[in-house]
Specification:
By secondary structure, the chain is an alpha/beta fold. It contains 8 helices and 6 strands; from the N terminus they run ββααββαβαβαααα. Helix 1 packs across helix 3 and helix 1 crosses helix 5. About 35% of the residues are buried.
Length: about 200
């Protein structure tokens, strides 16, 4: 397996990128879209936010991080992005490719209800990622200081699942500020000490 982490400085069509998860938090995507609209140095921004990918069967580029940014740029009509190749796995069969990504923690085959799905359910287009409002809530809780950034893959999705038992999707969409405040308090409780990035009650 080749492992070349040098960035590809030639633009890659964003529509050619393939996801390795089923969902994103569209509230978080909208925040990134707003950031993109306000940024005056878009070329510099793209150079500083390369999309990490692995090359899979058929030489397709599969995104293994920054799905929210990729979706935001896609929805804003940005045509091209810069990528960073993490590994070349084009020699693997599709079955072994997905299993390898799963083993490496480069794959999150869970739907908007937190239920694991077959690899075949993962969309082939960034624009087809579904909304998981609990993922948006989890990301906002971290930014609000509810927990720390953790190096473990998909930590925000783990928190999203943690919040599913306490809130409803309608709470997030209809009373965002109140739900965020309650979720931050919930994240700091001792009973959440096993969660990635837990900061404690203080």
């Amino acid at each position: 397996m080749a492992d070349n982490r040098d960035p590809v400085l030639l633009p890659v069509p964003i529509r050619s990128l393939r996801p390795t998860q089923l969902t994103v938090g569209l509230i978080e995507v909208e925040a990134k879209r707003d950031q993109w609209r306000k940024d005056q140095e878009k070329g510099m921004f793209l150079g500083q936010h390369m999309i990490p990918v692995v090359i899979g069967p058929g030489k397709h580029a599969y995104v293994i991080d920054h799905h929210h940014l990729a979706r935001a740029l896609h929805d804003e009509g940005q045509q091209d992005v810069l990528i960073q190749k993490i590994a070349n796995l084009e020699g693997l069969s599709k079955e072994n490719f997905w299993r390898f990504l799963d083993y490496q923690g480069w794959l999150h085959p869970f739907d908007e209800h937190g239920e694991r799905q077959p690899f075949s359910k993962i969309p082939k287009k960034i624009g087809h990622l579904k909304d998981d409002p609990f993922r948006s809530l989890a990301g906002a809780v971290r930014k609000a200081g509810g927990y720390s950034k953790d190096v473990r893959p998909f930590a925000e999705f783990i928190w999203a699942d943690y919040f599913r038992r306490s809130f409803k999707a309608g709470d997030i969409r209809k009373r965002w500020e109140k739900t965020l405040e309650e979720a931050v308090a919930l994240a700091r409780l001792h009973e959440a000490h096993f969660m990635p990035g837990w900061c404690g009650p203080h």
